[in-house]
Amino acid sequence: MRGLRKLQFSVATIVSSALIPCLVLADDHTGGVPLLSSRPDAPYTFYLNFAGFNYTGNWSSGTPGSTPSYFGVSSTGTFNSTQQNRIKQVWARVAEKYAPFNVNVTTIDPAVAAGRADTDAHRQAYYDSQARMMHTVIGGTGGWSGGGGVSFVGTTQNSYSTSGNGGAGLGRHTNWVFAAQAPTSYQFVAEASAHEIGHGMKLDHQSDFNGTAKINEYSSNNGATGNGSYAPIMGNSYSTQRGTWRIGTAGDNGNPVSQNDVATLLTNNGVGGFIDDGIGHGFGTATDLPLTGLTINNTLAKGVIVPSSSANPQAMGEDSYLSDFFRFRTEGGLVSMKLTNGSQYLTPGTADPGATLDSVLRVYDSSMNLVGMATRDGSTLFSTFSMNLGVGNYFAKISSIGGYSSTFATPASYYTMGSYFLTGSGFTPVPEPATMLGLASGLAFFYRRRRKQK
Prior knowledge:
Elements: E1 4-7, E2 44-49, E3 53-54, E4 66-67, H1 81-97, E5 103-106, H2 110-113, H3 120-129, E6 133-138, E7 149-152, E8 174-177, H4 186-200, E9 208-210, E10 213-216, E11 230-232, E12 242-244, E13 246-252, E14 255-260, H5 261-266, E15 287-288, E16 291-292, E17 295-296, E18 302-305, E19 324-330, E20 333-341, E21 359-365, E22 370-373, E23 375-376, E24 382-389, E25 392-400, E26 404-406, E27 412-414, E28 418-425, H6 433-453
Helix pairs in contact: 1-4
């Protein structure tokens, strides 16, 4: 265990706590939480708890007590459809941050399946006892702690004794995001959740330094906002377009140290390397573009762009990332494609909020000659390709733009990795080799039959 970290933010973003009454909870929990999981079989579980929690005992030097549910809905009540949709948006944003890693971001309480959810004290003990699990309570104003959230650092990978707090455990696997401070700012709630989970996975704050003097505990990349803007998840990414992992500077005042967020995340026991999205990473291993008729099947034509090295991941340079390759065919005519950054967990064909990838789409002919490149939209969230192509086979290559570099205060580089999906039309299905072989065998059989009839 390496101490704890509090997440602070500008008072200007705080909504008066009077709007969210402080409800007294027993061990009942608000119903109607959407059941969502990003990768259910992953070795790590990050449980986002929107339904309220009654913490037993002390957590570090504070006493959390009862935390009301997100939006302060009664512990005997149920989230309505609007609130459920907002929970989905928060979950999707957090899931996208961790999409390149073998972890499961979920709203499903793992203590239920384990038979340890009869009381919150038992749930608290269960979370502590489970290595590779973090329980993030989303709700309340945090009056007992201060800041926008709070977490221990570097505890998620380990299991802990439950002897403290009367057998409920010391809460090493429970952290908080004080969502009642800005309940309708879904970006705040999601970025803060990803931030606190990051602490549990050994990450410290990404800060700004002038020489060795710390000038900002929470770097916001000089308050970067608007299209194409970046800020660090482990800093303050509440207002930027992309909150991403960063290679930058952490540490105490007078003692700055370099922190590669992605490399650090991979050092947690059992995370392993990056996920494999199942798409070929070269011309020779290209995946057939999934089609429904003559149009792209976007539920299958998707992937996750990750760094090319797990041993030494780097943020800058297109070659620092693996590219995905699809093979397609056209009988000639207009071929249109749209490459969208982000996941589509919530509505297939529509990007979820919180894309972290910034990507490039290139089209090559069968001889691997560049035919054209998609036009990047001003929003930086998608690119489009439209061109009349001759009859033949082609390749679509999806790549990261190769990172983003900032020179504000201490120089830093930002990872441009994450999910994408493709849509488009004007294609011809590419026959599988086995299909072609079967067709040839059928023709040979037909030819032999004809010869016998002569």
